[in-house]
Amino acid sequence: MKESRDGTKTDRISKSPSVNSGPLVLDEEDFKGDFSFDALFGNLVNKLLPSYQEDETDSIEGHSSIGANDALSNGNLHTPSDGGKYAQGLSSPLFPEVDALLSLFQDSCRELIDGRLYNLKKEVVTQDSKHRKTLGELEKGVDGLFDSFARLDSRISSVGQTAAKIGDHLQSADTQRETASQTIELIKYLMEFNSSPGDLMELSPLFSDDSRVAEAASIAQKLRSFAEEDIGRHGITTPSIAGNATASRGLEVAVANLQEYCNELENRLLSRFDAASQRRELSTMAECAKILSQFNRGTSAMQHYVATRPMFIDVEVMNADTRLVLGDQGSQPSLSNVARGLSSLCKEITDTVRKEAATITAVFPSPNDVMSILVQRVLEQRVTTLLDKLLIKPSLVNPPTMEEGGLLLYLRILAVAYEKTQELARDLRAVGCGDLDVEGLTESLFTAHKDEYIEHEQASLRQLYKAKIEELRAESQQSSESSGTIGRSKGASIASSHQQISVTVVTEFVRWNEEAISRCTLFSSQPATLAASVKAVFTCLLDQVSQYTTDGLERARDSLTEAAALRERFVLGTSVSRRVAAAAASAAEAAAAAGESSFRSFMVAVQRCASSVAIVQQYFGNSISRLLLPVDGAHAASCEEMATAMSSAEGAAYKGLQQCIETVMAEVERLLSAEQKATDYRSPEDGIAPDHRPTNACTRVVAYLSRVLEAAFTALEGLNKQAFLTELGNRLHKGLLFHWQKFTFNPSGGLRLKRDITEYGEFVRSFNAPTVDEKFELLGIMANVFIVAPESLSSLFEGSPSIRKDAQRFIQLREDYKTAKLAARLSSLWPSSS
Predict the structure, then answer these.
(1) Taking the domains of the chain in order of start, what are their residue ranges?
(2) Is Transport one of the keywords (predicted)?
């Protein structure tokens, strides 16, 4: 079978109706192209099947040709149910030639494939051999090519090195030739300068041609350098030889002439530079500056340009600066005007320097160097001149008065000037100042003032304190004079004539100190220096608050002392007339009023003193401590100084509180003596219904204590309040014991006493002093000795043996002490007490 062009297979099998009619012939062409075993077998079956179908039709009865075709469709036997039995009975295969075809096909395939594989292997071996041979030849060719390239590269390198050497030799020769030519030219010029001293008329036209000034300057500098080096090598100094006209064997004459010529040329260039500067010809200025840069690196040109600026040579500019900051001559400068003037001046200086910077950048080859000189000149001349007029250091021995502003005005102006100058330095640094340490230069302007700053700050704080105290004294004196002495003549408050402590004043002290600390922070950049300054300034505040509060407490104590003197003045004996006694009682009432007023005034002073100390402590914690912490020991030392400074005020407060207790107890004793009657505790009508009201003396004392101690409850706090009230309670207990020992008690009087003790006990309970409460409770127990029958006394104190001694003294005050023979009874019951 062969594949035709349209994809169909040609049939080469004999078309005999029988299978055995002829052999099946296949060749290798049948397996080429798109060979498919499925197509091969399909074609075989389709070609051979009809002959088998015709033979089998004759032998099969009952089957139609349609059924036979259906049963053999696609090479598979499909029969109906009634034909299955017949199909099973067939003993011969449907395709007897299949085995022969398969055997033939396998043999043909094996022969074709094996032969083709053998031929392909043989061909591959042949081609591989040819390929290996070709590769070998190519490798030999490449190796030879590499060798050729290596030889060529080596040759090129050799030629290149030779060419480079030749080029170097040529360049060196050209350089030497040029150098030799220049040297010959320079020697010729040098000989002209070395001809005769001071003779510059015979020089080459180069040195007089204005159009070749740059070249002349360059050559002159080279000749001068060479001549000076030559003289230096021979150890000859120019001045010793310059005056010798015959010393022509060296180059001394040349050096002198060159120096003269350079000076003359430099002056000529500077003149041209000035003329161009006046006409604002920046190109000419730049040309001159470039040439002048060959003379001492252009320093003379730079300095000359800076020195000729109007702000340095115009006197009117300096006067305008002074008027702007200080105002009119002879007037007292104010801080606000100085601050505004300095701000305006710094802005004007910055703008001027910025304009000059634009010109300098366009003119000079080294603008940074010129800016450094300009900024330095601004600070050292213009700013320093103004500061010298503005900051006149005051004398500490004879400081200016407060009407003139005092030391504080100088310190404030110093701070403003320092701050504004620092701002100016930062602005100038932004504009440009080269390598100049503008911050360090600014600091140096204030060195003289900063060295003695802390002494002036301390002196200023002392001056402010002194002025404030004088002001307060004047106000107090004026108030006292306006009120007159009428009030005091009627027993009014003595303390009204004394100056009272004011928290507002202490707050003002702190404000002064805060301002001083801010200046310390401004002037001190190092933590150690700042800590030392802050500590010194804070110590001034401690001294001021300590002295002010101590003096205030002492003045309040003086009121207590005066009130005590009034009480002593009106203590009379018993043998006086009724008229005198009445007058003395009236005076005693006035003294008592003065004492109460003094007590209240002192409590107010204590309260304000405590508030003042709290303000200082808060100020220390918020503002001072953080500045002291960087230095070891500074914080602890300041805390110790604060405690020491307040100790004097604490001592005055303690003494005053003791006087307050004395004042209160003196009035209590006066009230008890005046109001307590003998019949209060020994009523002649004993046996009738007892009076359960406290005595009039007790009511008056409790009312007085309630009224006067209201100030103490308000003024004192914490442990101070507890200690004061405890001491007062103990003194009251002791005073009452002493007072009651003057009286005799019957049972009804004992009940009245117990009512008084209860009243006193309820009052002192507000002291929150347990020891005092316990003492008054024991007093209530001891008062029972006046109430119980004599035979019950022995069992009264069985549970409280500690008060038997005081109880015995109370028992002796019983009305029936002698009649009931209680002394003997007690001695037998309590022998240890006897």
Answers:
(1) 112-189, 195-230+249-296, 309-478, 509-675, 691-833
(2) yes
